[in-house]
């Protein structure tokens, strides 16, 4: 069977590559994946795979039933949405939508899952159980498409016993994969701060309350709060990515907007950090005569890979690729809404290497130059198919 999977992954590679090019050239933002979902639905229909569209908006959910379909169900998930980034790559399949790009590899994830679905469907008389295919919307934007699909019942009828997903990783070469059991990725909370001061002439600061100067104190002070109040053995990151205020060199504005993100891996500290951020910001602004409004929407939980399921998946990947091509990953402070699924069932979220010889395709995700060595498509399709077949038997 392993040789059959390898053969089919190679046979279907041109089609998977073409699918990836189409999705990459036609990216859609979170919760707007209408054409992407229609395209995916068309492929599933072409291959005779039963599926439902429009789930919680744009989600596409498929079912492949093998022999004795009630014996066991597993789920395989891919995300579909793109990012608000202008692509800088000069490639034939460059994004045709200005300001929108598949800079996080979701085009790769969706095309791989379609390739996996096609192989599993070809072999459905050779395995027992049911595979649920989850083509998910809105991974990049709160509240996360995973949470909406779960609310819509995606983990029921039938209920999967385990869930798997792959993700591009430009820090490993194509042909390799990476695993990390246990705590792997951080919780992701957004931070929105408004500082209201008093506007006036830049030459007369004593007659104003300067929100820009105060924001500098807030930004630097909050870094101390996180690094000095948090337990140093708990990874935490606080970053502000947007600051907006003012409209002239000689005017002190009356208001400033500050946007950021908090990442950590402990729920108690996460809650305490929310309190400390709010308290420090409000009191600092008050001390300088300003008013602060702090809003911290709670995002994804930290991602936990079930140790047993991950160990099994890693062993199957070694059997498929060889031990030297399966790597141990480090903890990452990025977030993933796959964590919503793993709150309900055991799961394994692993990485496929996408660079070429550590020399090409090394741009990070969320970068306008991100792209992959497409040999990685063969690895993703074949490895995940082999993992799925073994998970159904375990």
Itemize the secondary structure elements and their pairings.
Blueprint: H1 2-11, H2 13-25, H3 34-46, E1 50-55, E2 59-65, E3 73-79, H4 106-122, E4 130-136, H5 145-151, E5 162-173, E6 177-179, E7 182-185, E8 187-196, E9 200-201, H6 211-229, E10 236-245, E11 251-252, E12 255-264, H7 267-287, E13 291-295, E14 303-305, H8 307-321, E15 326-328, H9 339-342, E16 347-355, H10 375-393
Parallel strand pairs: 3-4, 3-5, 5-16, 6-15
Antiparallel strand pairs: 1-2, 2-4, 6-16, 7-14, 8-12, 8-13, 9-11, 10-12
Strand-pairing-aware structural class: alpha/beta
Radius of gyration: 23 Å
> What order do the strands of the largest sheet run in, or round the barrel if closed?
1-2-4-3-5-16-6-15
Please identify which CATH superfamily of the largest domain we are dealing with.
Zn peptidases
- How many angstroms separate the termini? 16 Å
Order of helices and strands: HHHEEEHEHEEEEEHEEEHEEHEHEH
Percent of residues in beta strands?
Answer: 25-35%
Biggest β-sheet strands, sense, barrel: 8 strands, mixed
What gross morphology would you assign?
elongated
Q: Number of helix segments?
A: 10
Helical amount: 25-40%
Number of domains: 2
- Unreliable stretches covering 5 or more consecutive residues: none
Reported by name, the CATH topology of the largest domain is Aminopeptidase
